[in-house]
Amino acid sequence: MLSKKVSQITPSYTIGISTKVKALKQEGKTIVDLSIGEPDFFIPEKATERGVEAFHTNQTKYDLVPGLITLREAIVEKLKSENGVLYTPSDIVVSSGAKHAITNSLLAILDQGDEVILPVPYWTSYPEMIKICGGVPVLLQTNKTDQFKMTLESLKAHHTTKTKMLFINNPSNPTGAVYTKEELIPIVNYCIDNGIYILSDEIYERICYTDSFTSIPSISEAAKANTILINGLSKSAAMTGLRIGYTASSPEIAKAIATIQGHLVSHPSLASQWAGVGALTESKTEIDQMVAVYKSRREALIKQLNTMKGIEYITPDGAFYLYLNIGSIKEHVAFEGAFSLKVCDDLLNDYNLAVVPGIAFGTDDYIRLSYATELSLVQEGLKRIETYLQSKLNA
Ligand code: PMP
């Protein structure tokens, strides 16, 4: 009965974990849940005001498919002032979250069997999204020594006649790695010269702890023409449940994306879009404050990690995750299937701690935890991980 496509798709690991966490909570257990990439802040005050006002002023009907013009103008202004790249509202399509912006883009670009190069570790939904849209994910292994960033050589090695697209997630979920402009330029130029579109997922760009972040379309006019930029308000403005993401692209691609979106969902909730206007135009200070909190948590956690034995980590330059290498205990753990799944099951069942297995991101020796949650809880989570690791190493 079900399509062949469905049988090729792996259910979301993160959703699987939240389901287990909910079941354990119902049994009365208190779980430290560091599995979800969801900011623990309220949305900015002005976002709330604008959203509520939309309900009171009858802004609850159908509107333009590519998104409210006021919101698209606010996005254009943001991209100009914060990312140094010039778009017009007709280059922007507002969608129901960045996830939707990505699938819209894939539907607009991919034909059946087209290859999409995906650096590993990747955000867990990418391979499945590519498959759903008829593409073939081609995994490009990166190295810990390169901070898990792809190099031009590795890109060339994965380029075939079927390559249509390259995914870049900068800053990265799960590693927090941020590419420098110097690292991006050769990769971007190679893609331009070889007709490979870039999908640049910059959803964590506002949560960045270095000055080295460069938005790919800002590199050159050719880079802008060759890139679909993905961004949104789920992470930067803590608006996960309001579902506002967007693409910025050439007007031709934007038109194609809008045609697809017009048939599938029309446009995201209008009240959410008005909340988005509030977040983009009147909430800079509040967003800066959230970023400052992530930054201070990150510093405290790095200090703690430096005291822990049996663990290697990648210093995150952006986003709000710790990607921890727990390979040191591999030979001390009995497991069938994925090692990181077993570790996460142990942590959940024996230590009441929920984190995400590295296998969800294509690297099985790792676990990911989110610090978009109260610092004391994350610190407690790290303590439990340390106790678990020691129990294995000393067994
Ligand atoms: N891209 C990346 C890299 C993400 O981590 C996420 C959310 N975890 C998304 C896209 C999806 O964001 P949204 O909630 O806006 O759909």
TrEMBL record:
It holds the Pfam family Aminotran_1_2. Its cofactor is pyridoxal 5'-phosphate. Keywords: Aminotransferase, Pyridoxal phosphate, Transferase. It comes from the Bacteria. It is an enzyme of class 2 (transferase). Residues 30-385 form the Aminotransferase class I/classII large domain. Its EC number is 2.6.1.-. GO terms for molecular function: transaminase activity. SUPFAM superfamilies: PLP-dependent transferases. Belongs to the class-I pyridoxal-phosphate-dependent aminotransferase family. PANTHER family: ASPARTATE AMINOTRANSFERASE. This is Aminotransferase. It comes from Fusibacter paucivorans. The lineage of its organism: Bacteria, Bacillati, Bacillota, Clostridia, Eubacteriales.
